[in-house]
Design goal:
19 strands, 12 helices, globular, alpha+beta, homodimer, 7-stranded mixed beta sheet
Chain lengths: ~450, ~450
């Protein structure tokens, strides 16, 4: 069905983009902490931001900017300090950062979008920012996607990146994306950032609509612990450099572009869920039979967010009762007589009543599906709050080669049907392990 | 302000009630598992039940009965099997149980309310029920509250009971209550049951209104893990045996009765939160400055339900950032500049920005407040899923004398102000510990 294919290059795969990531000295650990995405020309810009009442300065800044003019040339992102709960000084620091980048790159500061991640309540280290920005612009290249992806992470185990390509009127059109995830190992870390680049020619209003709908089917359908961050930002640029026919209404090509955008967002969202704190597996919950898509998505997200269900998955317990209980409290009306639950190929419940199934075989299915993941209990944090993988009792800095292993198809699949409606929806999450508690309790003092 | 006082006697403290709890053989462990509350005369009955779409047979049964006629003579409660996800056989078993009790006690079966707790998907052991009911009726006495409270628990660490007394027109009026809590140690255990008795003379409609409002300020304001059960039931009887003037409208005496009812419900609700799975302390979150009570309660419940915040409390980390982030995502609009957060007497945040506070002293405050609680890591489960306290490396059955220690005022208090409104609200919860995960993951297979 999908007539596109995966390519390399991440956010610099689409035409007319450059990216960079450098060590600017913002993180105490000395790891890369300043990232840049540049478009050669003005790009259409759309954004989806945290709904929290407590928001970082960069979130309010981007919202205001995009409301005034839905285009941008650059996205500047720092890690280390979240610039949330930082008052008027935080706002001034955001403005200065945009101005500095505008000067260094020779564009108006109004063409610069901003994102931050790191400790809430800390001001951005502006000296490091001031000296870093010129280096960052100098480092920007059309192969800079990985460097940028590495500079936006905080305590993520892996970087997260994707690029897809299709053709419109025989010319290639590409979408690339990077994101950082749900590592909140250091308390007060702000969570989700995702940046998408695209070289299609599309109208601003349509691009924003596509992005909002894609977010509803991807980032808004993942949950690690139910905590919405102060900094959550998804920003998508479309710079028209594919020079394909302009998309201004929802025709067949628009639908294809939106489907590809949704695929990019879902890939990134699933990578975040899989990399959830303490996670030992990715869980996918597919709900069908609902009256509409929204209801189905709601049920799916409630199940995948249930602490009891997540604990059961960690214990590899095929616990249909917790799935049924979570479905029941999702706020979506259904007849319990219609409830049907499957774990992979195992039918656990039908007509609202449990079936005899092979509990040991079902448990083994869950163990097997999770076997390619970095083993639970192998993650620790050093005094600088850098993430370490523990190998043979020795702490070693995170090894990138583990990433490929981490990204295999090791998803535990739960299918739930709640009736005869045509609404379907999917949500993704991870299990709740000792390490989640450990990671979030053992900051100290 | 409260012109009532605590008395002993639990649900049999009000006039005209008897209660019993026996070992009927419903639980595999052989512990007490069948409870009864009797009123000497027809009592006004009000109920608040789970909002889940997946409900136990007893919940649907009680709803239908109370809709037809808001009165009852008896409440029959079994532990061991939840009678949820049990189909038409489960419904028949509920009807038969009510009929058997009606016959044994000489009342119409329509005067019998039902509640169940235990494993979801299992039919009630009806042979044990049939032989148990006559014994149960024979055992009923006006000192039977503790026996009943013991027979409704599943994996709770302590029984939960309260009785309050006041005077109307110089005659004593009493309210008593028992409940069982959030022990979901055995997967599929169904959660919250609470029974309240009262001897006031009150009209049915008013009694139901009072109970619904009291539930909103108590049981609906606690969270252990955000999972709503299939069996949650709060049932309150008022049998008029105090022979005080009838309360038929919201006058001063009605307000006093409602306040006392609310106090009973809050006492029981807090006892459940404190006894949450793996909990090492009770957390109370007080929110003020909201536009109305509902908004304040919503913010309080969101904070106390945040997995990140709960993990921080387990680690005794005075983490204001997670409190601010949770407040921000509660769905209640406020200006972040007005946010103010206190931990006990420590002011952590003012005007939306963090203050310099003594982190070590604040952490010590949290440790001290939790010190009188049964130590974390001291709870285990045997092969029959009975709860054990581990003492000096030895597993011993749960010791009742630990209960008093467990019920001291060891609450960690968080106060949050979000503006200048007059709305206030409180929520209660517990921390998220390794034991929560352990308890819920290590059922097996």
């Amino acid at each position: 069905m999908a007539d596109w294919h995966e390519i390399s290059g991440g956010i610099t795969a689409p035409k007319g983009y450059r990216a960079a990531g450098i060590k600017a000295g913002l993180k105490p650990s000395g790891l890369p902490d300043l990232a840049l995405i540049l478009s050669d020309v003005d790009a259409i810009a759309a954004g989806v931001f945290t709904t929290s009442q407590v928001r970082a300065a960069c979130v309010d800044y981007c919202r205001q900017l995009l409301q005034a003019k839905p285009s941008a040339r650059a996205i500047l992102c720092n890690a280390g300090q979240a610039n949330a709960a930082t008052g008027s000084q935080g706002w001034l620091n955001a403005l200065e950062s945009a101005m500095l980048l505008g000067q260094a790159f020779g564009i108006p500061s109004e063409s610069v979008l901003l994102a931050s991640t790191g400790v809430i309540g800390q001001q951005i280290k502006m000296e490091a920012m001031r000296s870093g920005i010129p280096q960052l612009v100098a480092a920007a290249s059309d192969t800079g996607s990985d460097a940028a992806a590495s500079a936006i992470v905080t305590t993520d185990l892996v970087t997260k990146s994707i690029a897809l390509e299709t053709t419109f009127s025989d010319r290639p059109v590409r979408i690339g994306g990077i994101c950082k995830g749900s590592g909140m190992i250091h308390p007060n870390m702000a969570t989700l950032l995702a940046f998408v680049t695209c070289d299609a020619v599309v109208s601003p209003a349509l691009w924003q609509q596509m992005l909002s709908r894609a977010a509803d089917k991807s980032f808004n359908q993942i949950t690690v612990d139910g905590d919405t961050s102060t900094n959550d930002s998804l920003i998508a640029l479309a710079n028209g450099q594919s020079r394909t026919p302009a998309i201004t209404e929802m025709n067949a090509e628009a639908e294809k572009l939106e489907a590809m955008l949704t695929a990019v967002c879902q890939h990134l969202a699933k990578a975040i869920a899989r990399d959830g704190e303490g996670a030992t597996c990715l869980i996918e919950v597919q709900v069908s039979g609902a009256t509409d898509e929204k209801a189905a998505r709601q049920v799916a997200k409630t199940i995948v967010g249930s602490a009891l269900f997540k604990s059961a998955v960690f214990g590899r317990d095929p616990n249909w009762g917790r799935i049924a209980a979570a479905a029941g409290r999702a706020g979506v009306p259904f007849e319990q007589e219609n409830l049907r639950i499957m774990l992979g190929d195992f039918l656990l419940m039908e007509n609202g009543q449990p079936l005899a199934f092979d509990r040991v075989a079902a448990s083994n299915y869950m163990k097997q599906k999770a076997s390619s993941v970095v083993p639970q209990g192998k993650v620790s944090v050093n005094s600088s709050n850098d993430l370490l993988l523990v190998d043979d009792g020795e702490s070693v800095p995170f090894e990138r080669s583990a990433a490929s292993r981490y990204l295999k198809d090791d998803t535990i699949l739960i299918s739930v049907s709640i009736g005869n409606g045509s609404g379907t929806g999917t949500a993704w999450g991870c299990d709740l392990s000792y390490d989640y508690v450990k990671i979030n309790a053992e900051y100290t003092t």
